[in-house]
Write a structure and sequence with these properties.
25% strand, 9 helices, alpha+beta, homodimer, 378 residues, Creatine Amidinohydrolase, Chain A, domain 1, four-stranded mixed beta sheet, Creatine Amidinohydrolase
């Protein structure tokens, strides 16, 4: 076997790059991990801050001398020219370069034209799927802060009055937008950022799992609240969902809720190291079916039943491996952190989803998100 | 010339995809633009919301039937298998496929192995560099909201008292973290999100242009405040910087500030359609040099002088084409929106940067960010 190296070019908005260097860098930069160690190539704009905050063991190499040499050699100082210059020293010919699927395609084309042996690794950093105790603590902290937003939503729903087909709070109609703003403020104060928004949807919108929600929050209808912010400090996400009804749920909605809660319990019971992701999903889907609802019977334009997977890995990305779904491949491992989020969607009776976060252990799972799951808010 | 199509696979965190479809979609999806129109391929989780909010003229195509067919054909329903199936219909053999450098490399490899003719276009959507009146209005709005954060920072600095080597505000030492939190709260209330953080740095940190700032804000030292949030609603960024001193600036810092302000004015005067980006940069750099400071003389580990470019395009990304810097290629066009942000950095006297946003016009430029530039806060 020849030499091997990992090679990447991205900003730390790329979760793999964030994991490799352990701090935030706004603009794309090069990183190489080879037999000698890990190296990040940084401009004078970044290197001072990086040396203070970057992961121990990653050597920060000044980029400007490389740029000067590339310009002096008449090659310009484009990212492609710099990549060739860096690889000549840190991943020379004969090295197998493991790269991310997110390496820029034009850079890959240029390097391959120059003879580099690039192989896409998917996932690029498989070690990310098994969380360290520090990562578990960071996710647990993110979930605890996210629970504060649910407390705030419940408080507002309690304080709201039913007024015909609307709710009123502090004298004004209660909308998804207002609830999202109030939840967002709690998260802001807890140093969490809503990188991908917040879902608070009711009525017909709640029957569309990824509808962010807008307009009036309806009494007697399900209100799906799916909150998935990340810690500004650590970068680790939470991902939790609760479903509420202010007023009287329909009998069907109440049955949907009971089925989803039971399916979540079945998911918790099924999850442990060595279980296939699709088997954990089927354990929950069986409970849904036993409750008289559909699972996996999606049609293009309507959304009956349990139409998505049981859950997904969570970490520096809100969706990452491993997956638990009807068609998922792969087995759960101790140290995986996954969501457990069965849901049911009905064009007339809205949506119900309950989502928590667990750590997979050798003999089961440990909940990292702690918050009650009550449907009706009085 | 044969058939041509644009092909992309990304979430709308990718600015090109956001531009193509005009709304937010959290998970990656396919989009094809060919002679027949523009098509987005979306799962049942997304399609309802997309049809309400997506750009007019983009046809939403349900993904699940394609997945069923791919599974029935024994190919599985991986993104690669779906890409092949979509291209068979929307970009058949013989089509030149223009793709983004951000198309996943493994997907590109699989499609090319299957005979697809992929060519990376950089930029993928060159039309993004010329802003429509709606885009200009969105950026102007983002800048106006960002100015509120500067007002808040100035208010806090005015209210602060000098206490030896520290500032005190509301009885507690004033830190970068507190100022960022207060500025962030103003932005949150204005529905702006700090996708990439906020820089508020003083003292030695301010001499590192991309240091985010931390710890005590120092009296008599420059405080660089660089704020670049995006509108949650429109997705368009602002990018503005002001530099303050609470107390008495050093004579050198005051000279740096005057030089940077004059260089910014020279930048404004130089910018118009038809000017090369590097010439606009040199107009500002000449003023810096005439003021007795360096421009472009960076060394790896120290940061004297004007060590970065004059500015960059701004839109759905905080850094996008065109660039204005010593080595930038390309010419400004009417409708470009660019930052104008000269800076000076000195290991002893800290950093000074002033940044505004302008619209390039046929005969000059129009400022889109409006806020006073005063160094000293009494």
């Amino acid at each position: 076997m020849g030499r091997m190296a990992r090679f990447h070019y991205a900003s730390t908005k790329d979760a793999d790059m964030r994991y490799l260097v352990g701090t935030a860098v706004a603009d794309p930069f090069f990183c190489v991990e080879n037999g000698e160690g890990a190296f990040a190539f940084l401009s004078v704009l970044e290197i001072g801050s990086f040396r203070e905050h970057g992961k121990k063991g990653v050597t920060a190499v000044p980029l400007e001398p490389l740029m000067e040499k590339a310009r002096a050699a008449g090659a310009g100082a484009s990212p492609h020219a710099l990549a060739k210059r860096i690889l000549a020293r840190y991943g020379p010919p004969g090295t197998d370069l493991s790269v991310s699927a997110h390496l820029p395609l034009d850079m890959a084309d240029a390097l391959r034209a120059d003879g580099a042996r690039l192989r896409v690794a998917d996932p690029f950093l498989p070690e990310r799927a098994v969380k360290s105790p520090e990562e578990v603590a960071a996710i647990r902290e993110s979930c605890a802060r996210t629970a504060l937003a649910f407390l705030r939503i419940e408080e507002i729903l309690r304080e709201s009055a039913i007024d015909g087909a609307a709710l009123r709070w502090k004298g004004e109609p209660l909308t998804s937008e207002r609830l999202k703003r109030e939840a967002g403020r709690v998260l802001f104060d807890a140093d969490m950022e809503n990188a991908d928004g917040i879902i608070i949807s009711s009525g017909a919108h709640a029957a569309m799992p990824h509808h962010a929600g807008e307009g009036l929050v309806r009494p007697h209808a399900t209100i799906v609240c799916d909150i998935f912010p990340r810690s500004v400090r650590t970068g680790y996400f939470a991902d939790m969902t609760r479903t509420y009804v202010k007023g009287e749920p329909s009998e069907t909605a109440a049955r949907m809720y009971a089925a989803v809660a039971a399916a979540q319990d079945a998911g918790f019971a099924a999850i442990r190291a060595g279980v296939e992701g699709k088997d954990a999903h089927q354990a929950a889907a069986a409970v849904i079916r036993d409750s008289g609802f559909g699972a996996g019977e999606a049609t293009p334009d309507s959304v009956p039943g349990f139409i998505h997977g049981l859950g997904h890995g969570l970490g520096l990305e809100v969706h990452e491996p491993p997956r638990m779904g009807a068609h998922a491949s792969g087995t759960l491992t101790a140290g995986n952190v996954v969501t457990v989020e069965p849901g049911l969607y009905h064009p007339e009776h809205g949506g119900v989803r309950i989502e928590d976060v667990v750590l997979v252990t050798e003999d089961g799972c440990e909940k990292l998100s702690e918050h009650p799951r009550e449907l009706v808010i009085a």
